[in-house]
Amino acid sequence: LTLRSRYARQEAFTGIGRQGQERLRGARVLLVGTGALGSALAENLVRGGVGHLTIVDRDVVEFGNLQRQFLFDEDDARLAHPKAVAAARRLSRLNSDVTIEAHVADVDRRNVAGFVRGQHLVLDGTDNLATRYVVNDACLGASVPWIYAAVVATHGLVLSVRPKVTPCLRCVLGDEPPPGLLPTCETEGILAPAVMAVAAVAATEALKLLVGREAALLPGLVRVDVWDGVLEVTDMQGQAPSCPACTQGLFEAREVNETELLCGSGVIQIASRGKQQPDLPTLASRLAAIGDVVSNEHLLRLRAKGAEITIFSDGRTLVRGARDGAEARGLVARYIGS
Ligand SMILES: [Zn+2]
Fold it and tell me: 0.90 exceeded by the pTM?
């Protein structure tokens, strides 16, 4: 099988062509979050022959993800595979030409610049606005284009952002709204076909950007609703970037949260901030007497008395079965020690 025959149908489309395919092969893309949208975006780009894909995700595969997160299977959920690792394994089987790099980490204001540096494009596969503003600001700072994509229930939004050329997320949505203001897939639910429709729009915008067809980009915010049959583009053509971040480099950055509720799972994350790295094998043998322990090279998961605690090798912790951050920290202190 030659490279040429592999991508023949994509090259035959005049919007891509042989030249576009070559550019795609030289492209480096960062995908932040590989849940539902991230799965679909990654699969499209990897099958399409992007050169280098870096995946960052902070979460672990669960059975409740399988309805819409197309890269994962029941083994991934049973064995508590980190999403980044499970996605990379699956993607490398789809196309061995693509170099895939996986990071099990939470993207925040402290580490985002390192992930964005050297990329040609950043894709949004996250499930929360806080991380999107972090990505938006880092991309403005590094002059890397990025594509915002969000989906909930049966509808979603897509926006391509070219720093200093088109309006950014802050220009369009204003300053970061406080947590809890907007609907999430936790409260509204989500249909898999809606994910596919939104990902289809975002992945097509990504292809345009990567092959240098900027003139073909949709001219503003795209709204999709698969239930009501909507594909609507708000024309912002010619509108200049206007927010203080775009025009003066001023960002109203929120503090990094110590604890945070992850979307769609009822799981609370406790940041690893300055903690020592845990000794997972020692912890695993100690905790085996207390409850049900699953561990692999990336993490350890304890289930005991209705609570579930997942501790990653970098010290970051996810807690299920707690009502709030304080209770989550209490559970960790009780079982793991602080
Ligand atoms: Zn802006």
Answer: no
